């Protein structure tokens, strides 16, 4: 697993979760 790719996915999930929580 690419650390950079994992970080990007993690950031994306965090953004989506924060957006869905609104």
Topology (SSEs and partners):
Layout lengths: L2 H19 L1
List keywords for this structure.
22 residues; mainly alpha; single chain; 1 helix; 86% helix
Instruction: Kindly report the oligomeric state of this protein.
Output: single chain
Low-confidence spans:
none
Largest sheet: none
User: Overall 3D geometry?
Assistant: rod-shaped
Describe the structure.
With 22 residues, this protein is mainly α. It contains one helix and no strands. It has one helix at residues 3-21. The chain is rod-shaped, with a radius of gyration of 10 Å. The termini are far apart.
Write a brief caption for the model:
This protein is an all-alpha fold and 22 residues long. The chain is 86% helix and 0% strand. The mean pLDDT is 88.
């Amino acid at each position: 697993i690419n650390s950079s790719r994992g970080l990007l996915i993690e950031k994306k999930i965090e953004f989506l979760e924060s957006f869905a929580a609104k």
